[in-house]
Write a structure and sequence with these properties.
- This protein is α/β, with parallel strands linked by helices and about 400 residues long.
- The protein folds into 2 domains: about 150 residues, Alpha-Beta Complex (Aspartate Aminotransferase, domain 1), CATH 3.90.1150; about 230 residues, Type I PLP-dependent aspartate aminotransferase-like (Major domain) (Aspartate Aminotransferase, domain 2).
- It is about 40% helix and about 15% strand.
- The structure holds pyridoxal-5'-phosphate.
- The site of pyridoxal-5'-phosphate has 13 residues, from helix 6.
């Protein structure tokens, strides 16, 4: 390389250059180039607006001068509200000092990797899973260890298989229930067995429960409420999905104080604290009336039932039964090509945008994820088109 070339070389760190692009974003961009009435079923966020009383609380906070940095772990009443909510909704017992409030579950999860995994440590990730976990581990210099869950068991948590991958090098095991992308809720005995294996090796269980309030059949209990070693569990939650607050960027991590303090301390170097206005909005969300959240959940439940019905009626496709979250993970392996090919044909020829399953780990190959955070009318149109594709191609 000449001096001149060196001077003009764009210096990009390997940790950034090596990051895989999200297939969901790729589909989103491809869709941007397609004209016509597309049905967007790729997006993982509620289609509702944030409830009025939450917006009012934010406005009041901003006008009342709550526009400054706050304590790194969040304002004390919000930490208390998170602890109360975890106890009330999920049976998880933590003190406010065991809660750190961050800019979304995403920041909490990324910071957890930076704070708890050393370079060379391993992070065990049962897949299919939300793709960010792999990147969080890699940015921290840790090694993600994907454990593809068996498709023929509906991607339920196979405790033995996961436990086999936990060693003294494991810093954390990430368990997401309800799952993105399958909507499955993990069996409590399986979670307990994985938590036992993690505890044996001194690894944390990162319990990503951002969809915990969105279960449609049974009441949800947080993993920390029933495993034998709750002191190994870091519970991650968020306002995003429950209260239609994805843009407010407000989530939390709760668990053993030394781990929580370490997360807060790394967070100080990045954002210090989440937006003060969003914290006041979150306080209103958690402590105010829950009717709007309940109504959104009821709407998701109705759509889930509709999606399950439609999938059952279309020959050649199926999905694990979504007990929670707002996703159906469709087995499209009877169609020609891989997940991405099917997703591209579904977009270009039928006008439905989906998320290719291989974006959620190799276990997801042969699947596409559809979000039912969309109106019944749009879901009907989307499934009419999927049915047409199945008729044409199978
Ligand atoms: N965890 C899972 C499983 C998710 O699906 C998402 C968002 O899609 C997040 C965490 C991030 O949530 P937040 O908006 O609170 O950062």
């Amino acid at each position: 390389m000449t001096d001149q070339e060196a001077k003009h070389r764009q210096r990009i760190a390997k940790r950034a250059a090596g990051l895989e692009r999200s297939k969901i974003r790729v589909m989103f961009e491809l869709a941007d180039e397609v004209e016509g009435d597309l049905v967007h079923l790729e997006i993982g966020e509620p289609d509702f607006d944030t409830p009025e009383h939450i917006i009012d609380a934010a406005e009041e906070a901003a006008r009342g001068g709550q526009t400054h940095y706050t304590a790194n772990a969040g304002i004390p009443p919000l930490r208390e509200a998170v602890a109360d909510t975890l106890a009330r909704e999920d049976d998880v017992q933590v003190s406010p000092e065991q809660v750190t409030v961050k800019s979304g579950a995403m920041e909490a999860l990324a910071l957890a990797m930076l704070a708890l995994a050393d370079p060379g440590d391993e992070v065990v990730i049962p897949t299919p899973a939300w793709p960010n976990y792999v990147n969080h581990a890699e940015v921290a210099g840790a090694t993600p260890v994907e454990v593809p869950l068996p498709a023929d068991e509906g991607f339920d948590l196979d405790a033995e298989l996961v436990a086999d991958h936990i060693t003294d090098d494991t810093a954390a095991v990430i368990l997401t229930t309800p799952s993105n992308p399958t909507g499955r809720v993990y069996d409590e005995d399986a979670v307990s067995a994985v938590a036992d294996a993690a505890a044996e090796h001194g690894a944390y269980v990162v319990a990503d429960e951002v969809y915990g309030r969105l279960t449609y059949d049974d009441d949800f209990r947080g993993m920390a409420s029933y495993v034998d070693h709750p002191e190994q569990v870091l519970t991650v939650g968020s306002c995003s999905k429950t209260y239609a607050m994805t843009g407010w960027r407000l989530g939390w991590l709760a668990g053993p104080e030394p781990a929580v303090d370490a997360v807060t301390s790394v967070g100080e170097t990045i954002t210090a604290c989440p937006s003060s206005v969003s914290q006041h909005a979150a306080l209103a969300a958690l402590t105010g009336p829950q009717d709007a959240a309940d109504e959104m959940k009821a709407a998701f439940a109705e759509r889930r039932d509709y999606v399950v019905e439609r999938v059952a009626d279309i020959p050649g496709i199926s999905c694990p039964y979504p007990e929670g979250a707002f996703y159906a993970f469709l087995d499209v392996s009877d169609f020609e090509g891989g997940s991405f090919d099917v997703a591209k044909r579904l977009l270009h020829e039928y006008g439905v945008v989906s998320a290719p399953g291989d974006g959620f780990g190799e276990a997801g190959e042969g699947y596409i994820r559809l979000s039912f955070a969309n109106s019944l009318e749009r879901l009907e149109l989307g499934f009419d088109r999927i049915e047409e594709m199945a008729r044409d191609e199978l």
